[in-house]
Design a protein that fits this description.
The chain has 340 residues and is α/β, with parallel strands linked by helices. It contains twelve helices and ten strands. It binds 1,5-di-O-phosphono-alpha-D-ribofuranose. The site of 1,5-di-O-phosphono-alpha-D-ribofuranose has 16 residues, from helix 3, helix 7 and strand 6.
Length: 340
């Protein structure tokens, strides 16, 4: 079953349980936008996800705390199911849910609980934006004057490092991969060109030809596991391999909410399989004899190919991922989690 079917399935079941009317239309719209990648990028989808919780409490007519929690749970379930790989989604929801649980210990009224949600949502958004700025400041220190940087896909965290270095007049040059099949590399080019940076767009399969000109690769993250492996846009692991062979530095820029707490207790990160029409349209497929088509959105880069991870808390080796996870999500490892 592909993720689209799972999604529509999950959707129907929510509706058929008779709670569909309790999901605000705006929440459904945001969930659809995340699913269709009109809202994309691990950080952006996390911020959009927590906003759905704010919308839920704003629109809620719940008469009891239990009713409000049920509504929040329904929203969380729908939003988390939109994209299975980016751990920023559940981690954003967790940030709010944790604060709600703390407040529940104080027997809040419905109104008080709504305020807790709104405050936590605001905090998460502000913190995640600050984290991006901090990652830029920290990461730029590792960029030298005249560096040639390669980036893949479109990562706000990686771009923050590049833009900060450029603002410090480091005279950098950037190579951006197209990033088939959705061409997020075009977005990267536009942002960097608007900032006046010297950018070259290359096809994904040209990386080995140019790697010897590159000093540093910087990519973002959709998830980082407890052993320091990176899950990021498909093609990242090939770039890491090629970088290692050419002795080019490979940096990851990732906020701490991109680390996956589930991996501490042995869970594997699911790789999202997207619609094959992103790769080839049905008519063309027919013409070439209907081969099977695969369209994984992400791949896994082992920690040994990663030189360092730039987080808002500082620079860490991939081997320190477990420490970050314990600090940020240690509370999760000890109990069965309940979102709202
Ligand atoms: P920021 C993106 O995923 C890319 O894989 C990118 O590296 C990652 O999210 C992190 O992005 P997609 O949504 O949070 O394009 O750094 O599938 O922006």
């Amino acid at each position: 079953m592909n993720s689209r079917e799972e999604y529509s399935h999950g959707w129907t079941s929510v509706l058929s349980f008779g709670v569909g009317s309790m999901i605000p239309r705006e929440v459904i719209q945001i969930a659809e936008d995340i699913k269709n990648m009109r809202i994309r990028g691990a950080g952006k989808i996390a911020r959009a996800a927590v906003k759905t919780l704010r919308i839920t409490v704003q629109k809620s007519k719940a008469k009891s705390v239990q009713e409000l929690l049920e509504e929040l749970r329904n929203t969380a379930r729908i939003v988390i199911n939109t994209r299975p790989t980016a751990v920023s989604l559940p981690n954003g929801i967790r940030y709010v849910s944790k604060r709600v649980h703390e407040e529940l210990g104080r027997n809040p009224t419905v109104e008080e609980l709504k305020e807790t949600v709104k405050k936590a949502v605001k905090e998460f958004i502000v913190n995640s934006q600050r984290a991006l700025v901090r990652i830029g400041e920290i990461g730029a220190k590792r960029i030298r004057k005249g560096d040639v940087i390669l980036t893949h896909c479109n990562s706000a965290a990686a771009i923050s490092v590049i833009l900060t270095a450029a603002h410090q007049n480091k005279d950098i040059t950037v190579f951006a991969t197209e990033t088939r099949p959705r061409f997020q590399g075009h977005i990267t080019c536009k942002i960097l060109r608007n900032a006046g940076i010297d950018v070259t767009l290359i096809i994904d399969s040209a990386i080995r030809l140019y790697m010897n000109r590159i000093n540093t690769v910087i990519v973002g993250a959709d998830a980082i596991s407890s052993n320091g492996a990176l899950v990021n846009k498909i093609g990242t692991s090939t770039i890491a391999l090629v970088a290692r062979e050419a002795r080019t530095l490979f940096f990851v820029a990732a906020e701490t909410y991109k680390f996956s707490p589930e991996t501490m207790i042995g869970e594997l990160i699911e790789i999202e399989e997207r619609d094959i029409e992103e790769v080839i349209d049905r008519e063309e497929l027919e013409k070439i004899g209907n081969p099977r088509v695969l369209n994984p959105a992400f791949d896994i880069t082992p920690p040994q190919y990663i030189d360092l991870i730039i987080t808002e808390k500082g620079i860490i080796p991939p081997q320190a991922a477990f420490t970050i996870l314990q600090e940020e999500f240690g509370w999760l490892a000890s109990r069965k989690e309940q979102l709202f």
